[in-house]
Amino acid sequence: MNYSQLQRALLAALALSCAVPVLAQTKGATLDRTVLPIPEPQIKPITELDARKAKAPARFEVKAPAGAPNVVIVLIDDIGFGHSSAFGGPISMPTVEKLAAGGLKYNRFHTTSLCSPTRVALLTGHNHHANNAGAVMELATAFPGNTGIRPRTITPLAEILRQNGYSTAAFGKYHETPPWEVSVSGPYERWPTGSGFDKFYGFIGGETNQWAPAIYDGTVRVEHKQSPDYHFTTDMTDQAINWVSAQQALTPGKPFYLYFATGATHAPHHVPKEWIAKYKGQFSGGWDKLREETFARQKKLGVIPADAKLTPRPKEIPAWADMSAAQKRLFERQMETFAGFAAHTDHEVGRLVAQLQAIGALDNTIFYYIVGDNGASAEGGPEGTFNEMMALNGITGKADQMMQHIDTWGGPTTFPHFAIGWAWAGNTPFQWTKQVASHFGGTRNGMVLHWPKGIKARGEVRSQFHHVVDVAPTALEAAKLPQPKVVNGIKQRPMDGVSMLYSADNPKAADRRKTQYFEMFGNRGIYHEGWMATTRHSIPWLNVPLPPLKDDVWELYNVNEDFSQANDLAKQNPAKLKELQAVFMKEAARNHVLPIDDRRVERFVPAIAGRPDLLGGRKSLTVYPGMTGMMENAFINVKGVHHTITAEVEVNDAKTQGVIIAQAGTFGGWVLYMKEGKVHHEYNFFGLERTNIAGSTVLATGKHTVVYEFIPDAAKPGTGGKSILSVDGKKLAEGKIPKTQPFLFSGDEGTDVGLDGETNVSNDYKQGNNAFTGKINKVTVSVK
User: Fold this and answer.
1) Which DSSP category does 246 fall into?
2) Cα 778 to Cα 784: distance, rounded to the nearest angstrom
3) pLDDT, tens digit (0-9, with 9 covering 90-100), for 401-419
4) What are the tens digits of pLDDT across the range 197-242?
5) Taking CA 176 as the corner, what is the angle to CA 175 and CA 177, rounded to the nearest 5 degrees?
6) Hey, how many other C-beta atoms are within 10 angstroms of the C-beta on 500?
7) Is the pTM of this model over 0.90?
8) Distance in angstroms (rounded) separating the CA atoms of residues 701 and 401
9) Which residues contact residue 399 at a Cβ distance below 8 angstroms, ignoring those fewer than 6 apart?
10) What angle do CA 239, 240, 246 make, to 5 degrees?
């Protein structure tokens, strides 16, 4: 055979291979998609010896049903029903408005009142306690409903779609992985890429520094692009655009599922200063006036009923008129920053939408734009805070601590959160805020549904009662896919959600969601057939003794007639209240809500919460160079306890410098380092107070053993203590640390050996160029 004959034979073979039928295409209707993975068909053995004489069997490949739409879910963090311009708020969010004009606004769409619980419900179609996510992952306990471990009887939407022929990717915030599983030891099955997503780029915990994020690409920690203009929301958008563009270029006939969950607008409120400037002076009237203005716009837009009432300010939230001139100046800046943050986020979502349109994918994409995973956050306290980590440790911020940060608010030197009055205004017209699951201020968020090819209606409002658990069933119905009954041999729990598509082209369709429970930190409620019974048990920013759960006072609302829960009917209709309380207990038992746990910050401590601890109560941990980003739940706990840090190092010369070991960063943590040949230890208390001790002697070239010891004043969280630094058995320096961070150093920055990544614990060395110039053999951290 000459070259030309060989070439013709190869071309013929290629044509034949292209003509081989694909079983899933020709017999797709016969596939049983209720059992995943879809089993390969049994192929009859071939008895023909010569491949040239044999006929190739149909190739098996699972493809999505013909015409199945792409699925995009955009989820914004910690933003209220009354913040976005699309729902009457003061913040310009033109992307929400654009999608709403081409789709639908849902004004009775609900969340769980907190981030992790909302996300697991959203991405699975099952209630949050059924997912064992009764609160955020960092507060998991030993009780069913709160263990932080997703049951195998629940399979995420991403995995269902992936096994049905979709490409899947997640970008941004995840916050569904148990924190004790965030290490190189895994397991990885509850990471995004173990939960159905082919691609993940984002941060794994509850929040991140937008200027210096802790990013994972899949399961690998990566550094962000070093640029003075860097911002994480822009970065994650670039990554999402790149992924979806490549996926559609290579496989235009394969639908995709893209989950785009921004860290914004969760604290820290970080945004380029030019976006803050857009809102300068717009909030000088204060939160009481803003709430009234928003309420008027909401009625004009028709996103709330004409007869809806504006609920009054609770006594626990201060009046704007009672604030001093200095406080008002600070508070204005806080809200200007938040508004810029939200507007910037919507702009980035707009870039994603524009790219979907440019590649021809938007028309057949069922696009959810969910404006909030809960109500706006009041976790910043009455006056806000320049460092949100203080609030997460139960420490209330004071205005006088923040005044010096006004001009840099929202920039890299702050980690800010606004005052509770702005959260309350952002939740107009409802009562309360994030974490308060009993009232719509914590649980009702604006949502836009856009699907030009599948929904005829444009620019209309839908008022059927729905919940985040309804998103997954909606996507499955749109894709003509069933809910799986068995996955990987395990019988599946039926989804709690119902599809929302019945309401899309029928504004008067009767509600199909008849019942929905709510619970968070003892705040609880039950919706049932147009009525809602609620009881507010705790307030997010108040660290006070709580009443017994049995003594909580219940309220009753006819929410079919009372949009904002303004008219309590408990006294007029005690029989209905009793009926709904019984429904709550039934739903609570079914979903593992009981026993109710109203503890908060103390649950950050694994021993108190009763959840797994990666180190299993070990008293000593030895770490080595290259071990970086070790999160607090994957590192020995030194907070407030007697401990030593012993580092075996080799000094090159009199100028040896850099970080030996550091935990957390600019907004709280500790570091052992060398500078110009001298050893230092610094304790950073929330960026407010720093205790730095150092030896006066330059270490000689060669091997040394550096020891730091902390001796606490008392056995209690937040205690101060003695700080001692020694080298080769000789004490070099001693100091007094007045107080320590009680429960948490950071939400995203871990412990690094040989450098200090993300942000610096100390200002005494450079950011991004602080690696130890000598040699570290090992570092041992021991607790007494």
Assistant:
1) H
2) 19
3) 899 999 999 999 999 999 9
4) 999 999 999 999 999 999 999 999 998 888 989 999 999 999 999 9
5) 100
6) 27
7) yes
8) 44
9) 326, 327, 330, 383
10) 90
